[in-house]
Backbone:
């Protein structure tokens, strides 16, 4: 099996041959990787990660059109394709930025005049060729749009304003959610038409130890729109694998995610959810990606503890349906030795013995 075939078989709970390696490095750790290895390869190639992202629909830069929404933008701040501004933090913040929400405090009439990005008339002509080249390398192609509905909406409006809208001004909330969902569906459909193997959706709907919103609010505002996006994808490519990302405690939402059509849940944050219990309840209906804590074992464990945790979680899943990986971006405090230990743990796991 090549990397693509192996990964897709694992996610579909079919027989596979080896445990794939997957992680993301912050800029400090990218520099450390380059120092430690002396390699000119991207770390994704050096460590043989099994997938690569396909670029999103390309749309014209509208920074100057969005600039009036951010009159006090700090030096070094940038405005993204949604018109959301990101300002640099202090030196201690490293790569983290401060977000400025362009629709905060705006009336519905003002919001209706906002220049939302025009993906409908964007350029998706590059996507199929990128998929072809990724497949030629034996890798899985991914359409990555992890801030799909809820997060993009509150990035635009501000979380406090949007939550107030959901409770007190439903017309405004509906307008924003629908505008974002319409564009999510367009982007997702383009990825599906290009032939990606995996579509990576998501919204952070959990906090460290509790939900970000009630089940009722989730089912009223987010679930129907997520279901619509996934349905649009599956009309085009029925066998696509749908990932869904949410940090934090999301256990009460898992049945809804399964109902919406999610195939793989990421990241099962170990500080917030117990993987053995999650697998016991839902392991027959959904696969998983993650489970190795980036607040605990990756930064503060020993290499031996990292290896032990990787093998322990794979054993919980009986070797099937778990794409084991760190739960989030690896930050500067993660020792190089622990990254190598994670890789070693994946490479030494006896898949064939476990699948018998």
Residues:
């Amino acid at each position: 099996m090549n990397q693509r075939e192996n990964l897709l078989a694992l996610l579909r709970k079919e027989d596979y041959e080896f445990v794939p390696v997957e992680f993301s490095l912050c800029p400090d750790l990218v520099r450390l990787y380059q120092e430690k290895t002396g390699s000119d390869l991207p770390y994704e190639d050096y460590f043989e990660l099994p997938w690569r992202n396909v670029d999103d629909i390309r749309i014209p830069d509208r920074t100057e059109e969005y600039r009036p929404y951010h009159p006090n933008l700090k030096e070094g701040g940038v405005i993204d394709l949604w018109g959301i501004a990101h300002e640099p933090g202090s030196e201690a913040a490293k790569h983290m930025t401060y977000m400025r929400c362009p629709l905060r405090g705006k009336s519905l009439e003002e919001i209706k005049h906002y220049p939302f990005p025009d993906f409908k008339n964007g350029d998706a002509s590059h996507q199929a060729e990128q998929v072809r080249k990724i497949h030629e390398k034996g890798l899985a192609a991914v359409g990555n749009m992890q801030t799909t509905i809820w997060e993009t909406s509150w990035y635009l409006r501000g979380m406090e304003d949007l939550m107030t809208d959901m409770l007190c001004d439903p017309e405004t909330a509906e307008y924003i959610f629908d505008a974002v969902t319409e564009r999510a569906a367009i982007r997702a459909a383009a990825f599906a038409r290009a032939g990606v193997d995996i579509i990576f959706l998501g919204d952070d709907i959990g906090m460290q130890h509790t939900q970000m919103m009630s089940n009722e609010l989730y089912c009223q505002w987010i679930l129907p729109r997520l279901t619509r996006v996934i349905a649009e994808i599956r009309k085009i490519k029925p066998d696509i694998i749908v990932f869904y990302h949410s940090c934090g405690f999301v256990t009460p939402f898992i049945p809804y995610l399964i109902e919406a059509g999610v195939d793989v849940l990421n990241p099962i944050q170990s500080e917030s959810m117990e993987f053995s219990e999650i697998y016991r309840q839902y392991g027959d209906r959904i696969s998983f990606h993650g489970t190795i804590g980036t607040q605990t074992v990756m930064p503060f464990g020993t290499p031996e503890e990292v290896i032990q945790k990787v093998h322990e979680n794979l054993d919980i899943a009986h070797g099937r349906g778990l794409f084991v990986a760190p739960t989030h971006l690896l930050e500067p405090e993660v020792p190089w030795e622990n990254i190598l230990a994670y890789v070693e743990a994946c490479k030494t796991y006896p898949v064939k013995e476990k699948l018998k």
Summary: The chain is about 45% helix and 10% strand. The mean pLDDT is 97. The first strand starts at residue 51 and ends at 54. The chain has one domain: 3-56+106-354.
